[in-house]
Design the sequence.
């Protein structure tokens, strides 16, 4: 039943730097998650996107939220009834410099 | 201590939009703490004598399904949603609007554990 959903999540995970992806319904319940992401964040992710949408109540385009924390970032977008949450992780500066020296 | 806990749960109530009541009772339905959004709907049904014992019974029966101990029951109604958590000897009840963020309420479970420990002590002490 959720094969299409799983396929979409797998496709998202193949994009560069993506470590986890999750989809939530309008109740903030997790529809599917793949990769390194906690399914419990679906509710909080949706709450964040709802609050952000209030900044531009007349906007017809779905708002995209990007939270930066160290070398990780969390991208949240709500489109209609579905909210997508993507975790991305960039290689750390030390790792990058080590690999460059090698 | 009690004021701190009440303040904390009041803060939680404000954080989740559409949440009307957070109620902590023992397994027989004796209210220990209740915070509610006074401007919102009247949800006194959550204090009805049969409300909590019904959840306790349902929880006990659900635990017999062979899936392990039942932790949470979410009930969706036309105008309300009720999320009840089994934290024996306590029962945590959240009442919200039908379109309230259920996932956000469920995510609160781990956050409140520390505060519930203090209340549990008060309940279990002889």
Sequence:
């Amino acid at each position: 039943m959720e094969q299409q959903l799983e396929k979409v999540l797998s496709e998202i995970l193949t994009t560069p730097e993506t470590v986890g992806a999750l989809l939530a319904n309008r109740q903030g319940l997790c529809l599917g998650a793949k990769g390194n992401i906690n399914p419990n964040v679906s509710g909080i992710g949706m709450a964040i996107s709802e609050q952000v949408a209030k900044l531009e109540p007349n906007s017809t385009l779905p708002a995209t939220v990007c939270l930066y924390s160290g070398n990780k970032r969390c991208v949240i977008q709500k489109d209609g009834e579905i909210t997508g949450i993507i975790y991305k992780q960039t290689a750390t500066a030390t790792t990058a410099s080590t690999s460059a020296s090698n | 201590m009690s004021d701190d806990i009440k303040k904390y749960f009041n803060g939680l109530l404000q954080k989740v939009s559409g949440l009307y009541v957070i109620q902590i009772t023992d397994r027989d339905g004796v209210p220990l703490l209740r915070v509610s959004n006074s401007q919102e709907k009247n949800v006194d049904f959550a204090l009805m004598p049969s409300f909590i014992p019904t959840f306790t019974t349902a929880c006990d029966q659900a635990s017999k399904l062979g899936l392990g101990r039942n932790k949470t029951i979410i009930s969706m109604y036309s105008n309300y949603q009720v999320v009840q958590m089994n934290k024996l000897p306590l029962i945590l009840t959240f009442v919200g609007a039908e379109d309230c963020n259920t996932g956000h309420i469920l995510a609160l479970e781990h956050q409140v554990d520390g505060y519930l420990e203090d209340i549990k002590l008060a309940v279990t002490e002889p």
